[in-house]
Amino acid sequence: MCCFLRLAALTESLENRTPSEQRTLIGETLYPLVELLEPLFAPKIRGMLLELPRTQIFRCIESPGYLRQKVNEASDVLVDWYPQQMKLDEQEAKKFRAVMIFSKL
Predict the structure, then answer these.
(1) What DSSP string describes 8-66?
(2) Does residue 104 contact residue 72 with C-beta atoms inside 8 Å?
């Protein structure tokens, strides 16, 4: 579906919804787009993107370049966050970072 049509359908379906339902619908629209760019961290990155102002979220949906920029920014944050969360030792953390950097090439 064209990005413009996807956004138009989404904004129409958001009418008369609770904020929680709106967040769910927006997240369901974002997820497959994010998953194409960063499958390993798609759930976490989608959550990070949902914290953006709605205008930026909609721009992510309608602009593949902008989405890629925001996914890359989130991925950069996760490269440092994930090893700490998983309590990886220094060598494992370096391997993880190398894999993440290589996957962006």
Answers:
(1) HHHHHHHTT--HHHHHHHHHHHHHHHHHHH-STTHHHHHHHHTTS-HHHHHHHHH-HHH
(2) yes
Sign of the dihedral through C-alpha 16, 21, 27, 29: negative
Alpha carbon 15 to its chain's center? 23
The domain defined by 3-103 folds into c-terminal domain of poly(a) binding protein (1.10.1900)
DSSP state of 1: -
- What is the model's pTM? 0.77
The Cα 79–Cα 53 span in angstroms is: 23
Gap between the Cα atoms of 38 and 36, Å rounded: 6
Q: How far apart are CA 54 and CA 35, in angstroms?
A: 20
Q: Tokens 């992510």 map to which residue?
A: 60
Q: pLDDT digits over 84-95, tens only?
A: 666 667 788 777
Do the Cβ atoms of 10 and 32 come closer than 8 Å? no
